[in-house]
Amino acid sequence: MKLFTENIDGIMVISSLPKVLDASNAMEFKECIPRIIEQSSQAVFDMSTVQFIDSAGCGSLITTLRHLKGAGGTLKLCDVRKQVRSVLELVRMHKIIDIYNTREEALRSFSNEP
Amino acid sequence: MSKSAENHHKKTVEIFPNDEKAPATILVVDDSRVVRTYLQSHLQKEEYQVIEAKDGKEAIALLSDDIGIILLDLWMPEMDGMSCLRYIRENFPDIPVIMLTVSNEVSNAVEAMKYGAFDYVTKPFNPSELLALVQQAIRTRIQARRLRAVEAELLKSREHEITTASRIQQTLLLGGRPKNLKGMKIGDLTIASKNIDGDFYDFFMINDTCLDVIVGDVMGKGIPAALMGAAAKQHFMGALFRMARISEAEELPSPEEIVSQVHGEMIGRMNELETFFTLCYARFDTSRKLVSYVDCGHMRTIHYHSDTNTCTLLQGVDMPLGFPGQKGFRQILAPFTDGDLFFFYSDGLTEAKNPTCEFYGEKRLTDFVQGHAFLEPQDLCRAVWKDIVKFSQAESFSDDFTCVAVRIEMPEPEERYNQEWKLEVPSDLGELGRVRSLIRDMCRGLGSNLVDDERMKMIQIVATEIMTNIIKHAYQERPGETIAIEGKTTRDEIVLFFYDWGIEFDFTSAPKPVFDGSREDGFGLHIIAHTADYVRYSRDSSGKNCACVTFFLQRRG
Questions:
Q1: What is the average per-residue pLDDT within B256-275?
Q2: Are B554 and B514 in contact (CB under 8 A)?
Q3: CA distance B447 to B454
Q4: What is the pLDDT of residue B427?
Q5: pLDDT tens sequence across A85-102
Q6: Shortest distance, CA A89 to any CA of chain B (angstroms)
Q7: Which residues have CB under 8 Å from B243's CB, separation 6+?
Q8: Which of A71, B337, B345, B372 is the most buried (most CB within 10 A)?
């Protein structure tokens, strides 16, 4: 799986996420996580490309969050499509992962934190 | 018997039409012939018949219900007075016994009274005192007999009352089975146990397409339970009528509203009477092809699905009516299709026991209904009865036997909406996309006014979750196994069937979802349960598992 990553002031922004994030590619996605953490423990997933997510996809986001938190950072999401957002809310992930409308808002939120 | 004694006899007979013999026979027990003769002569003068015994042994041999009273000497050879008294009290408790004693033995006579002697007289006897005592004892004996007669009469009339109540219950309280229903056929059977009890059921025709069925069971037995059942039915009928009038132009009161109303009306009284009843209130709506039901602790209704030839059990979440602290009732929806059957029943069926005290049980009943669902509803009820009789090897049970079968008979009209889709895929996660494409095609076929893009994606998620579960759990990630998918669409709903031949799914072992971020799995079932309108899972006898999900396209229930 090819993920496009940018390092913006020490925060990893990952875009070009797959269109579908489901049980068929969740394992492959999880294997990419160490490569992200290598560079920074703060990450933003730009979700604009993701059109479909299932419980396995949600699970891979949680795994990412756990790894980043273990390294002292966190994961934030931005630009989440309506339908994907309703799934995240259904499994109450909006309570444990901050979701922002835009990439800029997500990046700004890091500098607002102590 | 002397002539005057016969007269006495006649007089007594008039008072006691049920008695064959008057209690005017006196048994005199004394080892002294002199005493016996003395007593006999005095008593016969007063028209009593006298029989004699010289000791306890002889007295016992002469005992019968014909004896009015006994005069019993305390001291005798061959079983003394006290032993003889004890025997009489145990075996003929209604016969008064007057103890005969000498003056220096009065303390023993008093002791005898503790053991139930009527009174005592001291020798030498004062004839008038003795006769007064004898008369008093005879009167006591008469009253005892009268009491027994009244008791017997009461028992008889109580039995008669129960028989009558039972007949009333059978003919008037149990609802008449509606005939000529459109889209449904009903069967019912009720067989009273030896005693009447609190099973009740009724049918309310709401309109051409709606039938309400109530089935209940009042705690306890006997006439009070049956009356409570009748009262409950009356409250339901009243509530339905009143609520339907209030909301005349609007929608019908829902089963949960009706049950709440009746609960509110009855709870105060039921708490006073310390009783409660279990209930299933089911509304069959053939226009929406949906049963909406409220289950308050009743036996789980069997739902036979004709499409998969399997059964599921309808179970609600509410406590029986009459339990304090009940706040609101929740109705549950289950869609049905042509050929489906619903079987309501009382605990008299599942709790019937065989000679080794084994219960007939829910499993046996469900299997029987599934195996005989092809029968006409009325014949099915009878067949169940016969099977339980065969099982328990008895024709009468300790509980009432009540069952109601409702079969849906409404062939689908040929419409452009009614379409069927089929797809077979190997057990490979790479096939998830193909399954989602199938769902997209199905939804597009219905038009965007029935299924918008967002809804379609939610249906796709449910399909993805089910497929993933089958591949990972049923087939344990073994490649090359088959998953068959069937889709049916109508104007009202989308129904998806997923068949596999893997391991049976065990709901109890499925992990509960944890939402605090500490776990990444366990969300699949949660998503399915909160997205689909109706989910059922079954496994048939050939080992084919079926997960079936329904999505309503319009508001139902």
A1: 87
A2: no
A3: 13
A4: 94
A5: 999 999 999 999 999 999
A6: 10
A7: B253, B257, B258, B261
A8: B345
Three state DSSP letters for A38-65: HHCCEEEEEHHHCCEECHHHHHHHHHHH
Q: What is the CATH number of domain A4-101?
A: 3.30.750.24
What beta strand segments (E) does B326-413 contain?
A: 332-335, 341-345, 401-408
Q: What is the mean predicted confidence (pLDDT) over B167-188?
A: 76
| Residue B59 CA neighbour count, 13 Å, CB half | 32
Residue with more model confidence, B270 or B484: B484
Q: Which two tokens stand for residue B455?
A: 């809804």
Terminal Cα distance for chain A, rounded: 34
With contact defined as beta carbons under 8 Å apart, do B70 and B116 qualify?
A: no
Cα–Cα distance for residue pair B415/B501, rounded to 1 Å? 33
Under a CB-based contact definition with an 8 Å cutoff, are residues B456 and B439 in contact?
yes
pLDDT band per the 50, 70, 90 thresholds, residue B190: confident
- pLDDT tier at B15, thresholds 50, 70, 90: very low
Per-residue three-class SS string for B411-475:
CCCCCCCCEEEEEEEECCHHHHHHHHHHHHHHHHHHCCCCCCHHHHHHHHHHHHHHHHHHHHHHC
Handedness of CA B502, B506, B509, B511 (dihedral sign): positive
Q: Distance (Å) from the C-alpha of residue B486 to the closest C-alpha of chain A?
A: 21
- E-state strands within B222-365: 277-285, 290-296, 301-305, 310-314, 332-335, 341-345
In the sheet that holds B534-539, the strands lie side by side as: B419-426, B482-489, B493-500, B545-552, B534-539
Q: Any CB–CB contact under 8 A between A62 and chain B?
A: yes
Residue B6's pLDDT is: 42
Q: Kindly give the residue spans of alpha helices, DSSP state H, lying in B247-331.
A: 255-273
Pair B215, B404: CB distance under 8 Å: yes
**B137 close to B98: Cβ distance less than 8 angstroms:** yes
Least Cα separation, residue A59 to chain B (angstroms): 4
Q: Does B520 touch chain A (CB under 8 A)?
A: yes
B512 reaches A (C-beta below 8 A) = no
Inspect the interface and report whether the beta carbons of B523 and A55 lie closer than 8 Å: yes
CB-based burial label for B321 (10 Å; 0-12, 13-18, 19+): buried
Residue B28's SS3 state is: strand
What φ, ψ does residue B279 adopt, rounded to 5°?
A: -155, 145
Sheet holding A11-15, edge to edge: A4-8, A11-15, A42-46, A74-78, A98-100
Select from B425, B432, B453, B465 the residue whose CB has the most chain A CBs within 10 Å, as the one to mutate to test that interface: B432
CA dist., res. B346 & res. B362, Å (int)? 11
The full set of domains in chain B, from first to last, is 3-149 (3.40.50.2300), 174-408 (3.60.40.10), 419-552 (3.30.565.10)
Which residues 172-201 of B have a C-beta within 8 angstroms of A?
none
Which residue is associated with the tokens 């005069």? B71
Inter-axis angle of helices B432-446 and B453-469, nearest 10: 150
DSSP 8-state symbol, B353: B
pLDDT band for B360, please (50, 70, 90 cuts).
Answer: very high
Please say whether the dihedral angle defined by the alpha carbons of residues B47, B52, B56 and B57, taken in this order, is positive or negative.
Answer: negative
